Amino acid sequence: MHYLLSIILAISSFSTKHQQIQNELTYYLQRHSVQDEGFDMVARYAEKGDSTLAAYMPKGKLTMTSFLHLKDYPREGKCLTKDMYGRIIIGQFHADTLMYGIRIDAHGTYAGQFDRHMTASGHGSYQSADYQYYEGHWEMDRRHGFGFCVSPDFLKAGIWKKDRYMGERMVYTTERIYGIDISRYQHEQGRKRFNINWKQLRIKGLGRRISTNRVNGEVDYPVSFVYIKSTEGISILNRYYANDYRSCHLNKIPVGAYHFFSTRQDPTAQANHFLRHTSFKRGDLPPMLDIEPSDAMIKQMGGPEILFKNIRTFLKVVERRLGVRPLLYINQRFVNTWLDYAPDLKKDYHFWIARYGEYKPDIHLSLWQLSADGYVKGIQGHVDLNVFNGYQGQWEEFVSEHCIR
After folding, report:
1. What are the tens digits of pLDDT across the range 130-182?
2. Nearest Cα to Cα of residue 59 among 122, 109, 101, 88
3. CA distances from residue 225 to 151, 221, 395 in whole angstroms, order as listed
4. Is the pTM of this model over 0.85?
């Protein structure tokens, strides 16, 4: 009976893991297109599964000499051997040099190209016993270069350096959905005051950290959405909010508002302050909660459990009033350090991640703030630039499902 139960549990676990992997593949494919690096590789795996085992399986028959490595009999063709670590390799040899093949170890199976030291180098895949699959480039037995890795918990497609995932590199095109977030700093520089010319708004520069070789064509993008800071804490107001909000509506630019969260003040009072001083019209983008505490602030308020308790309180007050869930704005370090303390938020809410530079954040997200020093015609000084995670179809779906009703 126990043996039968263990078999049933194993089958159930495999089925669950397989479905989770399919969910990760579906999420990726829904938010990418053929213009994105590696899309074809991920799409092929989603449709056909692992095709590398068949591609790199050596051709021909194994003979008795293929089991031996004698000085007078250099390996040629399909051979069975071991590397210096005792890993079994069924490989295709030429002039005693391993070209490609299948290698099996205690944790999984590699299929791909090798170098003269019999280490994985070039294109190849690795299927591990814990349901992780990687396909891409290798150097000296480590993932290095472009590749994708999928598991029940994530799909990472992008650049790897010495087995460390760096992130996805986006190609910037006119097909993407770009937007900005603004506050009083777009109106004030020292004692100088500036207006925004809403008629001229165009994104003309992505910022110094974004490589020009990732841009397809000229940077000249429409501003497809605007988020405006409305409030902070329980008393601070953005004096420019109301006028900027009206200007967005006059110019038919989708607009949303955000609140800057304070770790030192009551979350219910903060939510009421935000609701009292912010406009919400039908069709407006969902509100956003800007969460940027330092580690010291989190420690001072009693730790991450208290932080997330207060965040949940704020969210519930706003949700009850507006009928929509706010976005959560956090940075990549917050994701890496603190977000696992709140799996419910990670599962149920949409995220807006700040990570400046080449690599897209490593998390399911709605918006990516990729630059704090973008150039937008019609606005004086630097502007925060953001891109939606998806294309027009996904953007329309997001707007229809999550905007103010």
Report:
1. 999 999 999 999 999 999 999 999 999 999 999 999 999 999 999 999 999 99
2. 101
3. 33, 12, 11
4. yes
Q: Residues in the chain, how many?
A: 405
For residues 28 and 42, the answer to whether their CB atoms sit within 8 Å is yes
Of residues 345, 310, 306, 308, the one with CA closest to residue 325: 345
Distance CA 305, CA 302 (A): 8
Residue owning tokens 């490593």 = 362
Positive or negative torsion for Cα 261, 265, 268, 270: negative
Token pair of 375 as six digits? 């150039």
**Residue 68 confidence (pLDDT):** 56
- The CA distances from residue 149 to 45, 124, 163, 368, in Å, are 11, 12, 11, 21
* DSSP-assigned states of every residue in 222-258: ---EEEEEEEETTTEE-TTHHHHHHHHHHTT--EEEE
- Please say whether the dihedral angle defined by the alpha carbons of residues 48, 50, 55 and 57, taken in this order, is positive or negative: negative
Residue 206 — left, alpha, or beta (φ > 0 → left; ψ -120 to 50 → alpha)? Answer: alpha
Only one residue has tokens 């991640």, namely: 353
- Exposure of 9 by Cβ count < 10 A (0-12 exposed, 13-18 middle, 19+ buried)? exposed
CA 71 and chain centroid, separation = 51
**Which stretches of the chain drop beneath a pLDDT of 70?**
1-14, 63-72
